Amino acid sequence: MESQINTKYIKRNYPNRLCQGDILKNVEILIASDFDNDSKEYTRGFLTLQYCVLINQECDLLADYNARVLSNSAEIKADKILPSILLLPAYHAEQFKQGIHLPQREKWNSDQFRIIKQNNNSRFHYIEAFEDLQIPEMIIDFKHLYTITANIVNKRINDFYLASINELYRESLSQRYCNYLSRIGLPTIN
Questions:
Q1: Which of 14, 43, 78, 147 could link 34 by a cystine bridge, Cβ 3.0 to 4.6 Å?
Q2: Which domain holds residue 115?
Q3: Which neighbouring-strand residues pair with 130?
Q4: How many domains is the chain built from?
């Protein structure tokens, strides 16, 4: 049987439900950037993710949606509600290659960047451009992860939503991310 998946990206007609692999744009996140030991206060600020990919497990997102929207409000099952949404920032590929996507970042030569674009560097994931949905060529760095309150994303999904990574490709991204997180750093023994 031939696969029915014929594109890496889709535009869902019902973006009112969050899905794993959703590509979001211009998501503003409140962050605590420092802590003052004397005053015991945090320095807070906002960070805008120009693009990011939602990485929570699809089953958790569906259970959250069902608990929030489909259940009678008096019967919401609190253990099904996700307090936070996990976001992997996606950087413009050319800015990433030049090391200007964030301050003080490494530049990548052509050979290194080719390896990243082929998804042969376990730390990074390449997202191919798709002009029909205004998706630029991007790189995800698995070391970078942000969270945002689920309530905010649920209320603003129509503002944030750009497109979704199609099922098979989002599973590949999820598996690569989990593999990166589960790596084991072994000491060098002399």
A1: 43
A2: 9-181
A3: 135
A4: 1
